[in-house]
């Protein structure tokens, strides 16, 4: 009986950790995308400056 409860608890904890991991991976992907957009914007903004402003 106790062993069965332990297994059920482990399964629930594992599923919770998988969900958290997936969410973290999605957030990381989103951050990477945002970072790339910011870097591109910064590069584009620098190209728009005249040689005297650099």
What does this entry show, briefly?
With 54 residues, the chain is an all-alpha fold. The chain has one helix at 2-47.
**Mean pLDDT score, rounded?**
90
- Counting DSSP H or I runs of 4 or more residues, the number of helices is 1
How many extended strands?
A: 0
Distance between the termini: 73 Å
Order of helices and strands: H
Q: What structural class should be given to the helix and strand makeup?
A: mainly alpha
Radius of gyration, CA atoms, in whole angstroms: 23 Å
Major beta-sheet overview:
none
Amount of beta strand = under 5%
Query: Residue ranges: pLDDT <50 for 5 or more in a row?
Result: none
The helical percent reads over 70%
Shape: rod-shaped
Summarize the SSE layout with pairings.
Blueprint: H1 2-47
Note down, in words, how this protein is organized.
Residues 7-41 form a coiled coil. Keywords: Coiled coil. The chain is mostly helical. Helix content is 85%, strand content 0%. It contains one helix and no strands. The protein has one helix at residues 2-47. It is rod-shaped, with a radius of gyration of 23 Å. The termini are far apart. The model has no long low-confidence stretch (mean pLDDT 90).
């Amino acid at each position: 009986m106790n062993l069965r409860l332990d297994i059920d608890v482990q399964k629930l904890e594992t599923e919770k950790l998988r969900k958290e991991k997936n969410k973290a991976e999605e957030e990381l992907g989103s951050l990477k995308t945002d970072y790339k957009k910011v870097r591109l914007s910064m590069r584009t903004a620098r190209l728009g400056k005249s040689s005297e402003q650099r």
